Amino acid sequence: MRLKQPNGKVAMLEIRNVSRRFGKKTAVDSVALEIEQGQMVGIIGRSGAGKSTLLRMINRLIDPSQGSIFFEGAEVSAHRGATLRRWQRDCAMIFQQFNLVPRLDVLTNVLLGRLNHRSTALNLLGMFSNEERAQAIAALERLDIAPTALQRAGTLSGGQQQRVAIARALMQQPKLILADEPIASLDPMNAKVVMDSLRDINLREGITVITNLHTLDTARSYCNRIIGMAGGKVVFDGAPESLTREAVRLVYGADANGEEISEAITSTSIRPERLRKLESAGSLEPAYAGH
Ligand SMILES: Nc1ncnc2c1ncn2[C@@H]1O[C@H](COP(=O)(O)OP(=O)(O)OP(=O)(O)O)[C@@H](O)[C@H]1O
Predict the structure, then answer these.
(1) Which family is it part of (predicted)?
(2) How far is the CA of 25 from the centre of ligand 1 (A)?
(3) DSSP alpha helix (H) spans, 25-95
């Protein structure tokens, strides 16, 4: 059965009372969410709040200890074999550390996004059609990195590697993109390029994007829905405008001195004015200023 949202729309992704335990530790605790097609969702929370574990369960990199996950009415958490591979094709994942094959060239890395679309025999032969190659080049052009196509992926900067990972995700022709801290290893300028690319894919193709973010202001700037997690539970779920100071405190709690966590601490900000302030305070290399 597919649940109707309060606005009458049908939820595309339903997470029904999902929990995940690791030994005695409950990483995700009875999470229930419904996400409509086309949303750009940011998941925020302190380190250890359960954000990665939640994304990994959606993609089935790990299994829930309890509860179930549905996508377009089918129970993702029960998929096995070919059905599971199809789901992992429909649900592309982007990681903080890019997860490219560094010794392979960029074009081949992007073509790897097609693997779950093809027969095992074709994959063993390692042959890609001209059409697939043209699609891969188009994906690289879209991300403005086509000139790197024949370079080894490992020689690219972090920002370029993440763009290759996004191009590879596009090659999967996914219905959903999950991004696990996609900008946590990037400088502010590259972080902006990567977030702009994800937003562009969300807006132009209508692909749902769910992304874990360490930085509150990035979630506010790019997402139309923010989910706040603390201690494995969802403690906030709403539009960026309703993420009040009180809600932020609920998500991030208090620091060791009992003081409220300021928004600056949860921010690497990709806004120029903040960069200038950080630079003049001596906490940022001048090279980042002006982006
Ligand atoms: N494979 C695992 N084995 C044991 N404990 C785990 C495992 N994966 C996660 N945990 C624990 O589950 C909790 C939630 O971890 P998770 O990585 O989901 O948090 P997070 O919010 O994504 O944090 P971060 O932002 O640091 O990645 C943490 O206490 C973590 O130590």
Answers:
(1) Belongs to the ABC transporter superfamily.
(2) 9
(3) 51-59, 81-90
Distance separating alpha carbons of residues 174 and 158, to the nearest angstrom: 23
Residue with the smallest CA separation from ligand 1 atom 1 is: 22
What whole-number distance in Å separates Cα of residue 273 and Cα of residue 278? Answer: 9
> Per-residue pLDDT for 264 more than 50?
no
Residue % of the chain over a pLDDT of 70: 79
Length of the chain: 291
- Give the span between the Cα atoms of 249 and 41, in whole angstroms: 20
What is this structure's pTM?
0.85
Atom of ligand 1 nearest to the CA of 55: 18
The yes-or-no verdict on residue 268 having pLDDT over 70 is: no
Q: Kindly report the protein residue whose alpha carbon is nearest to atom 31 of ligand 1.
A: 48
Closest by CA to 100, choosing from 175, 168, 52, 193, is 168
**C-beta 56 within 6 A of ligand 1:** no
Q: How many Å lie between the centroid of ligand 1 and the Cα of residue 266? A: 18
Structural domains in the chain, CATH included, are: 13-288 (3.40.50.300)
4 within ligand 1 shell (Cβ under 6 A) = no
